[in-house]
Amino acid sequence: MALVKRFKISANPLPSSRLHPQSSTVRRFSVSQTRNVSLDSYVVTPNELLNALRKNVHTRISTAPRVVPVCASWFLPNDPQGRTGQDVFKKQRIPSARFFDLDAIKDHDSPYPHMLPTEEGFAEAMQKLGIRKDDAVVVYDSQELGIFSAPRVGWTFKVFGHPNVHLLNNFRLWVQQGYPTETGDIEVVVEEGSHYPVPSIDPGKVVKFAEMRDIAKDYNKEGAEGVQVLDARSKGRWTGSEPEPRPGLSSGHIPGSINVPFNELLDPTTGALLPEDELRRVFEAKGIDVEKPIVSSCGTGVTAAVIDAALGEARFGNEQERRLYDGSWTE
Prior knowledge:
Elements: E1 3-7, E2 43-44, H1 46-54, E3 67-71, H2 85-91, E4 98-99, H3 119-129, E5 136-140, H4 150-159, E6 165-168, H5 171-176, E7 186-190, E8 206-207, H6 209-217, E9 228-231, H7 235-239, E10 258-259, H8 276-285, E11 294-297, H9 304-313, E12 322-325
Parallel strand pairs: 2-6, 3-4, 3-5, 5-6, 8-12, 9-10, 9-11, 11-12
Antiparallel strand pairs: 1-7
C-alpha cells in the first residue's frame, strides 16, 4: 500500500540541539538504519516518540510496520473560544500525523454524542486515515488543553483490538521541548490495496447502560459486587451545582459514584499525567479500593478515559477489572 500526503509545511526552524545536527526543516526526522521500533509502555514521553519516529521514517513503497502519530484533539461544545480539533490540527501538529475526529468516528445511529462506532465503521475510518493494523499508533491531545480527549481515542483503539497503541504525555511538552511540527491542511489518500480488517469489540472493556443501571441500583445492597464508579467531571457538575455543557441535560451523579475530576490527575502547568506515585496518592485519597472492580464515567465517555489511563499509569488495581461506561452521564 502507498500513501499520498499533501500538506503545507511550516518553515520555522527548531533548535538544532533538539534534532539531528543535519536536520534543517520542521518536519524532517533523521533516519536510522534500524526499522524495528518498540515503544515499551502505553504512556510515552515526547523524547521516546521522537526517537521512534527517527528510526521509522517510512517511504511510499515500504510495507514495514510504522509509527503513526494520531491527533485526537477535541473541545467541549461550549468551548468559550469556539475551538475545534480540526482547527488546532491544522494550526500545529506532529509531522505526518492523522486526525481522529471524535465527532465523526462514532455510532451515528445513537442519540448520544460519542458512542463507540460499529466494527465496520471503525475499520472504514482507519482505512480512510491510512492506518494499518500493524502500525504503532501514538495518540496525542492539543497543546491548548493538555491531556483531555486522546485517552478516549487510545481506549477506542484498544477496544477494537489494535495491538500497538500508545498515549503521548504530551503534545504541549513536545512543542515546548522544540520537537518538529508542521502546519496547514493535510489530505491522506489511500490507494488501491490498503486494508484494515474489520475487528471485534472487546466486551471486557465496555460497560453498557443496562449493566450500569444495575450497578447503581445495587449500590450499598448486601451481597452486591461493590463495583466502584469513578466520575471524571468537575465537582460542580457531579454535585449538581453547575450546569452540564449540553443544553437540557441536568447535572448530578450516579448513586455511589466517586468524584475524581480528571484535572486532578494532571500537572497544572504542563497538562501531562502526573507521575505514578502522585497518581496513586490521588486515588488513595479518594478512598478507592485497589481490590475492587472499577468503572470510569464522565459526561459522554471522553474524560472517563483519562481516569482509565491514569489508573494504568499508576498500576492501580487489576487491568482486567477496569472498564469504561461508554454512554456515561449523558446516556
